[in-house]
Amino acid sequence: MQVKKAVFPVAGLGTRFLPATKSSPKEMLPLIDKPLVQYVVEEAVASGIEQILFVTGRNKRAIEDHFDIAFELEALLYEKGKDAELSQIRDIAEMVNIFYVRQKQAMGLGHAILCARDFVGDEPFAVLLGDDIIDAPRPCLAQLLDVYKKYRGPVLALERVPMENISSYGCVKATTISERVYEVTDLVEKPKKEDAPSDLAIIGRYVLTPDIFPILEKQEPGKGGEIQLTDAILKLSQDEAIYGCCFEGVRHDCGDKLGFLKATVDLALKREEFNGEFREFLKQKLG
């Protein structure tokens, strides 16, 4: 069965970006000229996703408005003859079918995924986290879907990270089965450096099966008092094989201020309109 549905958990408060996120969702922070979440939606669509569910919380209406039709704005752009801008705005509203559900309590990523149960039904589905912007020659999710099609089991996006940073991630113990593809044998959520089974960190892209839902429903809170998706996947691994894919591409951790700044510079330098003057500006600043 092809994966056509994706879940975007976006109910978090974005406290690392306060005060900017006091009244505006973190997912709507502009990375050059597009909000963070749009980059991830575009990745999903480019990977063949046809339906997206946003698991939202309070103060997230801006996300709904962004992907909705903007009649007044479209009329103004039409009257002014700004055809390119009009086309761009219409494309945002028309790129994919989007649905919304509220996560009424902040009970962790696992609970957010459980909120998508009715939307997913009995189909395999993708999960994409908006913090990770992945600049790749082929969409990161598409790479994971290739692994799913071959092995027909859940797939986690993996990236090797410095061991001094491993405590910020879920990580895995895994055996190599082909180039960039692993079978996962253990998962640990945010371990201490000395307890980490490897330097393979779980990044914010997943392909999961509906078998995860009965586990999440009974899952006890774990690290941080939250229902952890990592813990549920570990239990699922007792009954079926779990795979990992070390994707090709550059990940920008935009849930972190420094990562957000790096992403802005890196992506701007790839745009022809900024590559000249902006590059010279950076050279002058760096001496």
| Radius of gyration computed on alpha carbons | 19 Å
Which strand order do you get reading across the main beta sheet? 5-4-1-6-11-8-12-10-9
Biggest sheet statistics: 9 strands, mixed
Silhouette: globular
The chain-level structural class is alpha/beta
**Contiguous helical run count:** 12
Extract low-pLDDT stretches: none
Give me the strand/helix succession.
EEEHEHHHEHHEEHEEEEHHEEHHH
Average pLDDT, all residues: 92
Distance between the termini: 55 Å
Strand content: 15-25%
Helicity range of the residues? 25-40%
The count of β-strands is 13
Structural summary, described in words:
With 287 residues, this protein is α/β, with parallel strands linked by helices. Helices cover 36% and strands 25% of the residues. It contains 12 helices and 13 strands. It has helices spanning 36-46, 61-66, 71-79, 83-94, 109-114, 117-120, 140-151, 212-218, 229-236, 257-269, 272-275, 277-286, and strands spanning 5-9, 30-31, 34-35, 51-56, 97-102, 125-128, 132-135, 155-160, 170-178, 181-189, 200-208, 242-246, 250-253. The strands form 3 sheets. A 9-stranded mixed sheet has the order 5-4-1-6-11-8-12-10-9. Strands 2-3 form a two-stranded antiparallel sheet. The chain has a two-stranded antiparallel sheet with strand order 7-13. α3 (71-79) runs antiparallel to α4 (83-94). The mean pLDDT is 92.
Short description:
With 287 residues, the chain is α/β, with parallel strands linked by helices. 36% of the residues lie in helices and 25% in strands.
